[in-house]
């Protein structure tokens, strides 16, 4: 390219590379070799608990290394160990880190550091911020979201978990569900109803709940793919001090919006290792040939359509990063990316199932056949997590295209 | 990489605004309908003004040949606006196909004699590749070239030639004993005849061209047409993608505006989720297409951080063709009965969308082209 002006982020990028060179190995760029490497395609973890615990420990250790070297909270305030740099620096760091083999820190970052951390910073009291923020960004404390309930899905403002005033704080009673990483978490951010007579958005208060308190019970929730990534969390007369309240009493909706805005930015760009490999076109091409469909015109056509859309989705992410780097405000790209990500993974799962054929139905021990079950059984969740497709389309229709709301 | 003059984001937006305002004033729907009904299928005065007042054909032609030397990223803005307005005219055939083929040939003499005319709009060029089976091929032409005392004559029939009846300069692919080659034929040459065909896309005139011992001048090396036509296809695919995105966005905007204003059962139809979700799907496809076209243009301009041009062009053509076809069809659906009438402009986009999708061979062909670029 012929651009000549110096990139203001170049020095930061150099510093990030130096840090990563000193602490991690570069990811090998070898092409996919069929039959080699881990035989996984799934999005959700299905590891036995001791393996999963080891991965969590590695994630914590890597987050600590990042924090101690100034890359643990790039956008955070210096008083909590942050660098006070822009979100674009964050993107640049992520892009560079993707070139290295480092532990997957999703268990810490997707919810805790990505969504709850900024919420505590914006709405927490000093005591709570001092106590939790450095511990979270050092990898010691894992946070989860106590938002969803059995009766409130997309309509989050419909939460029924009650918080009632006591002399020195609050007592919480209710049930949460679909709580990712609660089995590893020390704290959770709960939305509770504090005024049942107010309009539903106006009677909610947000709290930070120490999950070791008496009355908190975390039960794994097994999902259709077989693993237990999610949990049900039962809150039975849990006493929470008032200084653990986030924001105003009955002002919890505003607090929740802070969290959700950060969520929209993160879903859709995440890639766990199994899925990332499935998304590489070399892997799908190898599947086409290895399954004996190399000359099958219909299969080739479907592969080409999926490849075109996947590649264009990657171009869209690049364009978004370029726009943000040049100082533009985020547009609708994140919601569009999330929709396309779910659609593309779903199409891949079904193409793979067709290519593998009956061998998908039972584990014959052959590499690269039964393992596609993982993606197939994850696929329905892609269209639901972070907001169902229908909710995402309402958001695009109303907030981006300016269409009128459904009359209530 | 191609050396191109740089332009900032702000300048690109200014250019977009200028072209959009000009086309809104002089190439509105009624003007488009008048233009396609008259000979030669576009407004010759408007074309002259686009060339002389706005200097559009000159933009992406190198300075050495009378142009401004901008790259395809810049030209993509113009193409997007022309697609949006559905402005008929020889911009695509002359600037993208003909000038593209001359540049790809690397033929210094041909470029210096032919490109300045294309740049100032005084010459309309086109490229004649396709023969009876409708395929965009780079070899195996039934049209043959014969050397006759140091000069060449062509014999054969070309079809689906854009602007073939109004072009001043035709670049014709033909077989020679040394392999396929490209030749320049001037309108009015002996043995040349062109006849306009009925077209699906009424905004882009297409002709059949017959050559009988027609004098022609070799462009580029003998036997070099395979590479020249492959290069032109990359450039033309991304240029077409830019046009498609502009047109697709026009369809989306039209559908959204109508869904806000049209009431049924006592409320705007855009408040029904069935309609709202359709429009959101259209937005998603257009957003994806925009990214694909942009990356294709950047790749064709040789940006350091862009993917290989052949890959990005194949992706752009595939994704933008599909997106434009999809939104053009759904736009009619959102408009209900009025969208199906001749008077409503929705059909002009629908016709253009399918013709564009088939221009270089159609989905089965470009999907294989994409797989080939990836070695699948």
Automatic annotation (TrEMBL), chain A:
Its EC number is 1.3.8.7. It comes from the Bacteria. GO terms for cellular component: plasma membrane. Keywords: FAD, Flavoprotein, Oxidoreductase. Coiled coil: none annotated. Residues 63-140 form the Acyl-CoA dehydrogenase/oxidase N-terminal domain. It is an enzyme of class 1 (oxidoreductase). Its cofactor is FAD. InterPro entries: Acyl-CoA_Oxase/DH_mid-dom, Acyl-CoA_Oxase/DH_mid-dom_sf, AcylCo_DH-like_C, AcylCo_DH/oxidase_C, AcylCoA_DH/ox_N, AcylCoA_DH/ox_N_sf, AcylCoA_DH/oxidase_NM_dom_sf, Mycobact_Acyl-CoA_DH. It holds the Pfam family Acyl-CoA_dh_1. The keyword Amino-acid biosynthesis does not apply. Residues 144-238 form the Acyl-CoA oxidase/dehydrogenase middle domain. Residues 250-401 form the Acyl-CoA dehydrogenase/oxidase C-terminal domain. The keyword ATP-binding does not apply. Belongs to the acyl-CoA dehydrogenase family. This is Acyl-CoA dehydrogenase. It comes from Nocardioides panzhihuensis.
TrEMBL record, chain B:
Keywords: FAD, Flavoprotein, Oxidoreductase. It comes from the Bacteria. The keyword NAD does not apply. The keyword Oxidoreductase applies. Pfam families: Acyl-CoA_dh_1 (PF00441), Acyl-CoA_dh_M (PF02770), Acyl-CoA_dh_N (PF02771). Its cofactor is FAD. GO terms for molecular function: acyl-CoA dehydrogenase activity; flavin adenine dinucleotide binding. Residues 11-121 form the Acyl-CoA dehydrogenase/oxidase N-terminal domain. InterPro entries: Acyl-CoA_Oxase/DH_mid-dom, Acyl-CoA_Oxase/DH_mid-dom_sf, AcylCo_DH-like_C, AcylCo_DH/oxidase_C, AcylCoA_DH/ox_N, AcylCoA_DH/ox_N_sf, AcylCoA_DH/oxidase_NM_dom_sf. Residues 238-362 form the Acyl-CoA dehydrogenase/oxidase C-terminal domain. Residues 128-199 form the Acyl-CoA oxidase/dehydrogenase middle domain. Belongs to the acyl-CoA dehydrogenase family. This is Alkylation response protein AidB-like acyl-CoA dehydrogenase. It comes from Nocardioides panzhihuensis.
């Amino acid at each position: 390219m012929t651009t000549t002006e110096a990139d203001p982020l170049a020095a930061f990028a150099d510093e990030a590379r130096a840090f990563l060179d000193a602490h991690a190995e570069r990811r090998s760029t070898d092409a996919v070799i069929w039959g080699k490497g881990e035989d996984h395609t799934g999005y959700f973890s299905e590891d036995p608990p001791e393996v999963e615990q080891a991965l969590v420990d590695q994630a914590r250790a890597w987050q600590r290394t990042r924090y101690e070297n100034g890359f643990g909270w790039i956008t955070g305030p210096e008083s909590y160990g942050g660098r006070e740099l822009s979100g674009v620096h964050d993107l640049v760091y992520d892009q560079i880190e993707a070139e290295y083999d480092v532990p997957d820190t999703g268990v810490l970052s997707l919810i805790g550091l990505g969504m709850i951390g900024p919420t505590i910073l914006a709405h927490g009291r000093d005591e709570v911020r001092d106590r939790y923020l450095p511990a979270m960004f050092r990898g010691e404390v894992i946070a989860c979201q106590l938002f969803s309930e059995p009766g409130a899905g997309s309509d989050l403002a419909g939460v029924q978990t009650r918080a009632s005033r006591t002399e020195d704080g609050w007592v919480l009673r209710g049930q949460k569900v679909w709580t990712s990483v609660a089995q590893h978490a020390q704290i959770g951010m709960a939305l509770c109803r504090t005024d049942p007579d107010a309009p539903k958005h106006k009677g909610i208060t947000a709290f930070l709940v120490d999950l070791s308190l008496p009355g908190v019970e975390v039960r794994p929730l097994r999902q259709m793919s077989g693993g237990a990534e999610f949990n049900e969390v039962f809150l039975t007369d849990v006493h929470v001090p008032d200084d653990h309240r986030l924001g105003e009493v009955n002002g919890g909706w505003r607090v929740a919006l802070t969290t959700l805005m950060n969520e929209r930015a993160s879903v859709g760009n995440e890639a766990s290792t199994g899925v990332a490999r499935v998304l590489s076109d070399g892997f799908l091409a190898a599947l086409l040939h290895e399954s004996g469909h190399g000359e099958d015109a219909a299969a080739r056509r479907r592969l080409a359509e999926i490849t075109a859309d996947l590649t264009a989705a990657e171009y869209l992410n690049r364009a978004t990063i370029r726009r943000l780097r040049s100082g533009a405000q985020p547009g609708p790209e994140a919601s569009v990316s999330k929709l396309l990500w779910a659609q593309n993974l779903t199409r891949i799962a079904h193409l793979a199932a067709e290519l593998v054929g009956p061998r998908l139905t039972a584990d014959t021990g052959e590499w690269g056949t039964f393992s596609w079950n993982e993606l197939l059984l994850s696929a329905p969740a892609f269209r639901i997590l972070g907001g169902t497709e229908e909710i995402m389309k309402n958001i695009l229709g109303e907030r981006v295209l300016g269409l009128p709301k459904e009359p209530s | 990489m191609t050396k191109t003059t740089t332009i900032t984001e702000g300048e690109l937006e200014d250019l977009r605004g200028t072209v959009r305002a000009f086309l809104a004033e002089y190439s509105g729907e009624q003007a488009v309908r008048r233009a396609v009904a008259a000979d030669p299928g576009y407004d010759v005065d408007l074309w002259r003004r686009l060339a002389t007042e706005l200097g559009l054909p000159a933009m992406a032609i190198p300075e050495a040949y009378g142009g401004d030397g901008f790259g395809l990223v810049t030209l993509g803005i113009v193409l997007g606006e022309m697609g949006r307005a559905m402005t008929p005219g020889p911009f695509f055939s002359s600037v993208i196909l003909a000038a593209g083929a001359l540049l790809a040939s690397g033929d210094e003499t041909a470029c210096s004699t032919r490109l300045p005319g294309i740049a100032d709009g005084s010459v309309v060029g086109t490229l004649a590749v396709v023969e009876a089976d409708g395929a965009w091929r780079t070899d195996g032409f039934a049209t043959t070239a014969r050397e006759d005392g140091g000069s060449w004559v062509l014999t054969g029939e070309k079809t689906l030639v854009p602007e073939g009846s109004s072009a001043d300069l035709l670049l014709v692919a033909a077989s020679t004993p040394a392999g396929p080659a490209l030749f320049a034929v001037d309108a009015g040459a002996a043995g040349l005849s062109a006849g306009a065909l009925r077209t699906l896309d009424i905004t882009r005139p297409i002709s059949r061209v017959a050559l009988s011992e027609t004098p022609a001048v070799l462009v580029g090396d003998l036997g070099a047409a395979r590479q020249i036509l492959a290069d032109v296809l990359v450039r033309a695919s991304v240029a077409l993608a830019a046009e498609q995105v502009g047109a697709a966005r026009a369809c989306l905007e039209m559908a959204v505006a109508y869904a806000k204003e049209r009431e049924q059962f006592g409320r705007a139809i855009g408040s029904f989720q069935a309609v709202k979700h359709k429009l959101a799907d259209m937005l998603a496809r257009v957003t994806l297409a925009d990214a694909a076209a942009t990356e294709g243009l950047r790749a064709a301009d040789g940006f350091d951080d862009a993917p290989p041009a052949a890959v990005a062009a194949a992706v752009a053509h595939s994704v933008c063709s599909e997106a434009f076809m999809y939104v053009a069809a759904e736009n009619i659906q959102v408009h209900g009965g009025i969208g199906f009438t001749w008077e409503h402009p929705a059909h002009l986009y629908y016709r253009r969308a399918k013709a564009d999708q088939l221009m270089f061979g159609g989905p089965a062909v470009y999907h294989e082209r994409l797989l080939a670029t990836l070695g699948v």
